[in-house]
Amino acid sequence: MPSDENEGITSTAKAIITVTTILEIIAILAVSLRIYTRINYKLYLGVDDWTIIAALLLSCGTSIIADYGIVVTGIGDPNYQSTRDSTVLALKIKLAFENAQVATMGVIKISVLFFYRRIFGISRRFVTASNVLLALITSFTVAVILAIIFSKGPVYRQWDLTASYNTNPSAIIICYIAGNSFFDILTLALPIAAVQRLHVDQSKKLFVSVIFVLGNT
């Protein structure tokens, strides 16, 4: 039987839930402070603000899905015995979590790019480069989500224990990790390239570039 029915939530599950909760609280405070500052200084809320709010909601949803999965699947319980129903539930949670996580990462990158455009938007070259990157990131995110959803088709076969995969799930994961890292690098490089064209001394360029690197991490 699941541990949440017999012995409650395990210490391992509690530790993971505590960490995810703390991280989400920090994220909520950071975004709330950003929006409050915009409103307090009578600055309009741009696309970057609305997309970071969407990313925050997706991130909270992802954490809730993960925490729920941790509780109901006996994480950290050596005596946990899965049943067919619990395995089906775990597969449903896995599908929801994977898609929510991919969507969250994609929307975060989109928000960061729009934030950069707020700063460097006067440069036509920068706007063009950011538009291309926005299109690529959006297409990549949608493609990965569709690949995950239809790796078994129809969708309900995702939790059919006897159904085989239409595509290699490991290949999807590898492609996503590689693509996500690649777009992280491009997103990071975009403002640094713009900073290097500023008419200031090299030390100030380095300082500003470091700020962007820290902000992007």
UniProtKB/TrEMBL annotation:
<dbReference type="InterPro" id="IPR052337">
    <property type="entry name" value="SAT4-like"/>
</dbReference>
<keyword id="KW-0812">Transmembrane</keyword>
<feature type="transmembrane region" description="Helical">
    <location>
        <begin position="52"/>
        <end position="75"/>
    </location>
</feature>
<dbReference type="InterPro" id="IPR049326">
    <property type="entry name" value="Rhodopsin_dom_fungi"/>
</dbReference>
<feature type="transmembrane region" description="Helical">
    <location>
        <begin position="170"/>
        <end position="195"/>
    </location>
</feature>
<comment type="similarity">
    <text>Belongs to the SAT4 family.</text>
</comment>
<feature type="transmembrane region" description="Helical">
    <location>
        <begin position="12"/>
        <end position="31"/>
    </location>
</feature>
<feature type="domain" description="Rhodopsin">
    <location>
        <begin position="33"/>
        <end position="215"/>
    </location>
</feature>
<feature type="transmembrane region" description="Helical">
    <location>
        <begin position="95"/>
        <end position="116"/>
    </location>
</feature>
<keyword id="KW-0472">Membrane</keyword>
<protein>
    <recommendedName>
        <fullName>Rhodopsin domain-containing protein</fullName>
    </recommendedName>
</protein>
<feature type="transmembrane region" description="Helical">
    <location>
        <begin position="128"/>
        <end position="150"/>
    </location>
</feature>
<dbReference type="Pfam" id="PF20684">
    <property type="entry name" value="Fung_rhodopsin"/>
</dbReference>
<dbReference type="GO" id="GO:0016020">
    <property type="term" value="C:membrane"/>
</dbReference>
<keyword id="KW-1133">Transmembrane helix</keyword>
